[in-house]
Amino acid sequence: MNATMQRFSLSGKRALITGGTRGIGFALAAGLAQAGAQVIISGRQQSTLDAAVAQLRQIDVTASGILLDVTQPDRIRAAFATLDAPDILINNAGTEQICPSLEVDEALWQRIVDTNLKGAFFCAQAAARLMATNGGGAIVNLCSLTSKVGVPGAAAYGASKSGLVGLTHTLSSEWATLGIRVNAIGPGYFSTDMTEVFYQDRAWCTAMLAKIPLGRFGELEDLTGAAIFLCSDAARYITGQVLYVDGGYLASI
Ligand code: NDP
């Protein structure tokens, strides 16, 4: 491999992907592992975690799992205490529930914001404490189109994902001296357990497709190149950025 391609390799790096049991997190774990990283995925249930780790090992990569509910900072600290310093953290664990804003209650708000924003911060903090002792690292936060545009019924989700952009900016400026880069990926429309309900609505699909210049919804593999790049030495001068992987949606609305 020549020196230019070598910079894209994640060989020898340890990567933790929160919420890596399915959907985008699982795809990113597989992609990072195929780029050479040793991956650790987190999930909240031992059975689904074990199944996802076994599936990753089937593609002949180094993978392990760790139980973690990101809404609990004390559990995050305890989980990270069992790990060697990661070189990469992907803050992917997330949740969503569409609800008219007039009906949002405190429990819904707290569940979504605690998972998507508080969880991402305390995972980043726990990872950065280890990364700082190990020469630095790269953190990637999973943002959203709702970080940038309003989506009716997504008040808590949009607030959490917009907050994640602010967090990305703050941490990137604060931790650069520790050798830690903090960036974000903003996926467009990807069919997963979280979003499946939308894709069952033909009218919604037709209307959305008309707004995506590249003319199709995202496939999970469309996200892996962006994640590998941002975590690799090829992006060593990039921090505090949000890379939208959306088929051109944001540029055209
Ligand atoms: P999925 O619902 O398919 O997967 C969510 C993952 O998050 C699961 O692995 C789940 O793990 C984990 N998770 C949920 N709550 C918690 C928690 N409290 N603690 C730890 N882990 C948790 O979602 P997606 O793959 O679609 O989404 C992944 C990320 O991408 C999210 O942050 C989402 O907001 C973001 N995103 C997704 C888009 C899309 O179109 N799909 C668009 C924009 C952003 P468990 O096995 O424990 O349930």
Overview of this structure, please?
The chain has 253 residues and is an alpha/beta fold. It has a single domain (3-252), classed as 3-Layer(aba) Sandwich (Rossmann fold), CATH 3.40.50.720. It has ten helices and seven strands. It has a seven-stranded parallel sheet with strand order 3-2-1-4-5-6-7, with helices on both faces. α2 links the parallel β1 and β2. α2 crosses α9, α4 (73-81) runs parallel beside α5 (106-132) and α5 runs parallel beside α6 (155-175). The radius of gyration is 17 Å and the shape is globular. It starts with a helix and ends with a helix. The mean pLDDT is 97. The site of NADPH dihydro-nicotinamide-adenine-dinucleotide phosphate has 30 residues, from α2. The site of NADPH dihydro-nicotinamide-adenine-dinucleotide phosphate (NDP) has 30 residues, from α2.
Largest sheet: 7 strands, parallel
Number of domains: 1
Biggest sheet: strands side by side, in what order?
Answer: 3-2-1-4-5-6-7
What compounds are bound to the protein? NADPH dihydro-nicotinamide-adenine-dinucleotide phosphate
Residue stretches low in confidence (pLDDT < 50, at least 5 long) are none
Share of helix, binned: 40-55%
Structural class: alpha/beta
The CATH C-level name is Alpha Beta
- Topology as a string of helices (H) and strands (E): HEHEHEHEHEHEHHHEH
Number of helices: 10
Please compute the radius of gyration using only Cα atoms: 17 Å
Describe the global form. globular
